[in-house]
Structure formats: structure tokens, C-alpha cells
Amino acid sequence: MDLRERLRLLKAAGAARAAADGAPRAAAPLPFDRARPQTGPAGEPLPFRLCDGLEGELVPTGAGSAFRLESRHPLTEHRGPLPLGWPLDLPAAVWPRLGRVAPEFDIRRAVFLDTETTSLAGGTGTYAFLVGLGFFEGDHFVVRQYFLRDYPEEEAMLAAIEADVAPFTCLVTFNGKSFDWPLLETRFRMARRRPPLAGAPHLDLLHPARRLWRDRLGSCSLQDLERNVLGEYRVGDVPGSQIPALYFEYLRTGDASPLAGVVEHNRLDILSLAALAGRMGQMVADPLGPTPDGELLCGDDLYQLGRLFEARGLLADALACYQEARVRGAASVTEAALLRRLSFAYKRAREQRQAVAIWEQMVESGGLALFPYIELAKYHEHVTRRYDLAEALTARALAVAEQRRSLTAAGGQAEYREVLHRLERLRRKRQRSSV
């Protein structure tokens, strides 16, 4: 669909259009009857059926009526290995450790958000035609979805969303910091409405998910994490790339039935957000212990958790994860890479003795890892002042660099020159010290 066609839809969605040869034709049926009362008695929501599979209610606002669908899920309901209510039982300290959110982040007062839009590229011409909200309420996790039946109804939809999120203080999304929430903020501003939850703590699960699983899984889309982390498989799901076209087709024809699958897609996304938050929160809260389903984290997950903790400055937790990852085995990382991480974490934690022990063990066992020679040389140069040992270790490092250079065409030469420069500097320093 080109830009001209999109602009025509934005300007006159559902109106009569001329055929390609300019001949008039009958107006396409509107997806709802504007003459029909839009609210019930005393401004109460009015039950409304858009089509089979899209039964909800019209919610009155000061800007008109918004079409809302709602589903309620017991906290004991499972999506993946844990019940939906599991995040509520986790310590509050879990969330800042997982996603760099402010300490006042409260999962009980968080709204889970996901949108379906008229374009995957964003921009001021992109509408959020379906906005899904999830939140904990009593013994249920509630999913509310607002569907834009026609473009003029957008302000009413935004007003209803604003009223729904008013009690909440935090956000949980998946790639929402980059796409969903900025898009909604733009739509609020274009409607001359102040965006709600401005500056609220925002937990975007995409970023810790990438740190935890990108190396092992490759793709970290929400659907891939559903399959590989939660063990959930969708049947007959609507591909995200097809969703904008389905909405434009609805605007042309007034037939909303193909969009029932889109609404279900969005509902499952919200449920998966809650389930993924619980799963990731559990991993952070107790990485070494068994999960409630009795399983232990694999070595790969522990290694990546260690990296996550190290990035947060939680060195004791990082060290515990790295150590246990060695015990359980990590298929996605070499032993040398794991030992590098472990020894450098010891070094950052000022536990030099443990780091030195790892470097000495690696030097004794040989291999083509260069860093243990260099780090031991630095240790003896700057800590023990044994320049002779530092020089000998650097000479051995040069031999390793020569082997690596013969095996790798790219980067080996620069690495060799760097070690050679270090060796020459140490020799000059040793000569000066002996005078």
C-alpha cells in the first residue's frame, strides 16, 4: 500500500470511494451504525458485538464511545511453567535487578501494555488501532483491549485508556520503550491530551531477555520466547507482518471477522508478558535453586545471568552464577570464555587471589587463550613487582599470539604487535630497574 492510499484511508475511512475508472460506486458498509445509541442508560457501558469473536462493550467517555473487550484470568492459571500470579510473590528487589527500573517499581501497580498498529515503522501517521492492557486485580489478571472501529473514534479510545491506567504507577512492555509507548505518547499529544504515566518506571522485558537468551536462541521475539522459555505454542496465530493490512481491509469493507485473530494475538501477547515477567523474575530471585516446577537452570542461563548481574554491579551474585555454570556446563560458551568472565569478576570484586589461581591454572594447562598470560604478567608487574616473571609470561604470551596469528588471518597481526610492544616495554623497564 502506497502513501497516497494510506492518506486516503486516514481522511475518509469507511466512506464511498470512486472506482479505478472514476465511476461512482456504493459506499462500503461502516463497521458499526453511527445512528445506534453508543452507551447504555445513565452512561453505563453498552454490550456491543462487532462480529463473531469480537463481543465487548462500548465505554462512554467525554469524547464519545470506545469499544472495549475484556477477559479475566485466575492467578492460578498457567501460561508456561508458572502461574500468572507468580510475579506478585517475588521480592520487590527483583525488578531493579532485572531491568534497571527505579526501586519504587511495584509489579502490583503495573500495567502490561502491547499495541497493534497500522504500520510497523512508527511515525506520526501510524495509529494504534488495538491497545491491550493487562493488570492484576484481586484474584485475577485482567486483559482489556481497546479496538479502534474508525479513525474518528481515536480520542474516545485514548480517553478510555487514560481512565484505565490512572490507578497504575508503572509500565511493563516488550520493546515498548522503543515502539509501543512512544507511539501512544505521540497519539495522545496529537489529540491534545497529556500522556498518562509520564516518567513512570518502565520495565521493558526485551532488553534483559536479549542478554539472557540471544546467544543461545538467536531470535528473542516474544513468540520465540514463548516457545523456548515458556513452552507455549500458538496455533493459527496471525503473523505480525500481516496485521496492518488486515486492519486496512476492514476499513475498506467493514468486515471485522479477520481481525478476531488479531485481537487474540494481542491478548496472548499480554498474557505472555505477565508469564515472562514471572519466569525472568524467578530466575533473578533464586538463580541457583530449583524453580517451582522442580527444574534447575542450565549452565547457559546461569552464565548469562552472571553477565546480567555483573552489568548491574552485583558481583557476588555474578560470581555465584559463573561458578555454578562451570559445574552444570554451558554449551553456548567455551570454557576459556567462562573462565575469563569468572576471573575478571573476581578481579573487579578485588578478590585477586582467586583470579590469579584461575590464570595460573590456565597457563599450566596450555591452550591458545591469551588473556591468562597477559593478566598474570600485569599482576606480577604491578602487584608483586616481579618484573622477571612478568617478562617471562609476556614472552610466552608472544608465542601464543604467534600461534593464533598463524591460525587466524584477521586480527592476529594486530594482537601479535600489541603483545610484542608489551614485551619490549617490560624489557626496558626491567633493565632500568636493575641499574
From TrEMBL:
Residues 111-279 form the YprB ribonuclease H-like domain. SUPFAM superfamilies: Ribonuclease H-like. Pfam families: RNase_H_2 (PF13482). It comes from the Bacteria. Residues 20-30 have a biased composition (Low complexity). InterPro entries: RNaseH-like_sf (IPR012337), RNaseH_sf (IPR036397), YprB_RNase_H-like_dom (IPR038720). Residues 20-42 are annotated as: Disordered. PANTHER family: EXONUCLEASE-LIKE PROTEIN (PTHR38462), YPRB RIBONUCLEASE H-LIKE DOMAIN-CONTAINING PROTEIN (PTHR38462:SF1). This is Uncharacterized protein YprB with RNaseH-like and TPR domain.
